[in-house]
Amino acid sequence: MANAENKTFNFELVSPERKLISEPAVMVTIPGGEGDFGVLANHSPLLSTIRAGVIEVVGENDNEPRRLFVAGGFADVTPENCTVLAEYAINVADLDQAKIEKELTDLKEDLAMAEGGQDKARVQRKIDLANAKLTAVTGELQL
Amino acid sequence: MPSLKEYRDRIASVKSTKKITSAMKMVAASKLKKAQDQAEASQPYASAMAEMMSRVAAGVIVTDASPRLLIGTGKDDVHLLVVVTADRGLCGGFNGNLARKAREEILHLEAEGKTVKLLLVGRKGRDVLKRNFENRFLKTFTGIAGKTRIEFADADQVTQYILEAFDAGEFDKCSLVYNEFKSVLTQTPSIHQLIPFSLPEVDTADIDTANEGKHLDAPYTFEPEEDAMLEELLPKNLGVQIYRALLDSAAGEQAARMTAMDNATRNAGDRINGLTLEYNRARQAAITKELIEIISGAEAV
């Protein structure tokens, strides 16, 4: 149970396939659907959507935050818990810039060839995801 | 009466069948373990999702403007059945029972004057239902059930298809027909309605007392607000339900195969014993016959 002196809260990252992370954290920054927000212990209860982006987790003895890329999902915050549901999650360090750039070029070709609104929308979603990944790696906004 | 050689051949062939079935049993047992682990690992996400749904549901008033996934299209004419079976056979009544359940449901719905469309996941279900209901097929997904690890992306491709078809107005209601994994020995074919989705019953008194225990003094903030949140949650929740059904079905398939192969191995063992007995009897008879011939030959001299 959290109390006033307690600086940490329990951070959980869950994908549909398994629980990826469950550990105490001091601060977590989450790319919310309506803007990024930071979570400290004793945060007021909050439910939010998540857009594709980077979650930063600062643990008790960490100087540098751990950076995780997530795509689409939800965050459930209570004073002593922070649960992130994400369909896709990967360490930012594991993302390969060259690979993503290649994927992006391929997808753009696909988009040019895609016929029909549904196909186009599907490819566009993939492009948005790849762009978000690239932003996570390079730190620059992709336009 | 078969010759001794024929007996020997038949025993050898049953023996090799027994080897195969017992190997298949072992393989199914290890796959079952993996499938069960996977189903267990997916539990936290599903329960977290269910918790969110109930929190959001507590603050939502259902109106005509609510998401269509929740309130439906307002009609009840076209039903989509998503039938989940295995890709491969040799697993006892697993596929057959499910196909029977699906057939009953189709006939039942059509007797009520509804139109039925089918979405099939798994090759076996398609093969069985093809005979009578091929004209109702919308799409078939194969190659999912046979995988060692079913990924969420597999479920998602089915989900996306359903959502697109729903948006295109292809159907009004959607139900999932799948084998529910009760235990290693029982898998029950069951039907579960997906669209329109029924919100979990919320007992407000319950939530209040639960919150007191957790010292929640502030009310929940929703970002975006409840209605928009629900709009996002519902499709995701659909995906989770389909994913869980696929996992259940995969575990059930392996369990059913294990049981079926165990039976087959035992039957093969019985058959070998029976054949060996007959073989020995025939051999004995041949020896006796030979002796009689020798003796009667000697007496004649």
What does this structure look like?
The complex is a heterodimer of chains A (143) and B (301). Chain A has 143 residues and is of the alpha+beta class. Chain A has helices spanning 97-113, 117-138; strands spanning 9-14, 19-25, 27-32, 35-40, 46-50, 53-58, 66-78, 81-91. In chain A, strands 1, 2, 3, 4, 5, 6, 7 and 8 form an eight-stranded mixed beta sheet that branches. In chain A, helix 1 packs antiparallel against helix 2 (117-138). The termini of chain A are far apart. In chain A, 29% of the residues are buried. Chain B has helices at 4-41, 43-58, 68-71, 94-111, 123-133, 152-167, 204-213, 226-300; strands spanning 78-84, 115-121, 137-141, 173-181, 187-195, 221-223. The interface between A and B is medium-sized, with 28 and 35 residues. Strand 5 (46-50) of chain A pairs parallel with strand 6 of chain B.
Largest interface: chains, residues each: A-B, 28 and 35 residues
Distance between the termini of chain B: 32 Å
Total domain count of chain A = 2
Catalogue the unreliable spans of chain B.
205-216
Q: What features would you highlight for this structure?
A:
heterodimer; A: 143 residues; alpha+beta; ATP Synthase, domain 1; 2 domains; 8-stranded mixed β-sheet; 2 helices; 27% helix; B: 301 residues; alpha/beta; Helix Hairpins; Pyruvate Kinase, Chain: A, domain 1; 5-stranded mixed β-sheet; 8 helices; 6 strands; 13% strand; elongated
